[in-house]
Design brief:
By secondary structure, this protein is α/β, with parallel strands linked by helices. Helices cover 27% and strands 16% of the residues. Helix 5 runs parallel beside helix 6. The chain is globular and about 60 Å long.
């Protein structure tokens, strides 16, 4: 079976199968033909750590990618990357477009790589279309062996350079964690436009898969790295940061057309593929195969999922554990304030800074009862009624960190030589001022 891994950038669950206000018809069609997971989570709500976890089956603190690849971080062992593991079983591995596992896409180990040489920030749509054209050309080739194809899009990453003429920002519903004002509505209109462009580019590749007769022989996985690039979302351990889209489609899928509320993590995808393809699961995997869910044999495979942040543009170490009912977040480090460099630039960031975000401090320890507080607004960590739940969640996180040898337990956070890191007080992560860098 071929594998087509399609991934967008900073999309969270802000697409039509989850939100009818965002017109992404190709992804909606894929969801209805495949299995839609409504309770899927990344392992780290920043770009490189999230993708590295999915593609190694290990959390970032284990695989070495606890910061951004273009800022000096890398995997401990690229042989663990899914593309390289599949090569051992006769797969041709090909990459088109975005990746975040190495500063240089050619250093990962794919058999073939095509990445538009222009900066994606110049024109995200043109960049995604060019890489998509190369992917389509590949699909039209004769294939002597199965392939693992990664098609990565720059959309829906910032900057949002346009608002589609079909969108009137005055009549948008913004995410619940944003203020409903003109600046945020306009900013979010740019995101929706970006999602529409991504959907168009994905649709072209899926159509080519149909036209070449490869669909029935291909498992399609669509996901994203983490939540959208707005305040209190990307680079945060709230569900708005770690919640991701996940759609899986393949011929003969017993759960095709169904929606799953099962608690799953990105690290569960690697062992799922191993089971699907009938190949051994490597010993380093930490996730659980989703095949019992896809085969309708179980309702759940996980009691909990885990996510983390160590570095993004600046250091902001934190860890979390999420069950179906509770979310527990713990922040580390000597500083207690918000870290503005870890909020992507845009109208929504400007607004929260103008309103005094940096005069406030996030709680160092948080517990949310998600059954009663799905928006994660009421921190009950000090509520005596939740004492047993707090103890359980602390213990669950501590046990996981010990089991996976998480360096955060000691309070020591490794810093690879040559890494680029903003100070925790820096506002603009692209600043040219030396004082904004450690």
């Amino acid at each position: 079976m071929n594998i087509l891994y399609v991934h967008t950038h900073d999309t969270g669950r802000s697409i039509q199968p989850y939100d009818p206000g965002i017109p992404t018809p190709n992804l909606m069609k894929l969801a209805k033909e495949g299995t839609l997971f409504r309770n899927a989570y990344c392992c780290g709500p920043t770009c490189s750590p999230s993708r590295a976890a999915l593609l190694t089956g290990q959390p970032p603190h284990m695989n070495g990618m606890y910061g951004l690849a273009h800022r000096g971080f890398s995997l401990n062992d690229y042989s663990k990357h899914l593309a390289n593991y599949l090569k051992q079983f006769g797969y041709e591995t090909v990459l088109f477009g975005m990746q975040h596992e190495n500063k240089n896409a050619h250093n990962i180990g794919y058999d073939r790589v095509f990445v538009d040489s222009r900066s994606e920030r110049e024109d995200l749509t043109r960049w995604d279309l060019t890489n998509g054209d190369a992917a389509i050309a590949y699909l039209k080739e004769k294939h002597d062996r199965p392939f693992f194809m990664s098609y990565g899009l720059a959309h829906t990453h910032r900057p949002f350079n346009e608002v589609d003429e079909s969108i009137d920002p005055d009549y948008l519903k913004v995410p619940h964690c944003l203020a409903d004002n003109a600046a945020d509505r306009l900013d979010y209109a740019g995101f929706i436009t970006s999602a529409m462009r991504a959907d168009m580019c994905i649709g072209r590749v899926l159509d080519a898969l149909d036209e070449t007769g490869l669909t029935d022989d291909t498992m399609i996985i669509y996901t994203t790295d983490h939540g959208i690039a707005f305040p209190f979302m990307k680079c945060n351990l709230y569900d708005t940061g770690i919640g991701v889209s996940l759609i899986i489609k393949y011929k003969g899928n017993p759960s095709a057309g169904k929606v799953k509320d099962s608690l799953v993590s990105h690290v569960d995808i690697y062992p799922t593929l191993c089971d699907m393809l009938g190949i051994p699961k490597p010993e380093w995997l930490t996730g659980t195969s989703m095949m019992p869910l896809l085969n309708n044999e179980k309702d759940e495979i996980n009691d909990a999922v885990f996510a983390e942040v160590t570095y993004h543009a600046a250091a902001e170490p934190q860890r979390c554990v999420r069950t179906k009912r509770y979310k527990y977040i713990r922040r580390y480090g000597d500083w207690k304030d918000y870290v503005p460099a870890n909020i992507d630039a845009g109208g929504s960031k400007d607004f929260v800074l103008e309103q005094g975000l940096l005069e406030h401090q996030p709680d160092r320890e948080m517990l949310f009862d998600l059954s009663l507080d799905a928006a994660e607004r009421n921190n009950v960590i000090h509520d005596p009624k939740y004492g047993p739940a707090a103890a359980m969640m602390r213990r669950m996180l501590d046990d996981y960190m010990e089991k996976t040898d998480d360096f955060a337990s000691s309070g020591n956070f490794p810093r690879p030589e040559g890494m680029i890191l903003n100070t925790v007080t820096c506002i603009d992560p692209d600043s040219n001022d030396p004082k904004d860098y450690e």
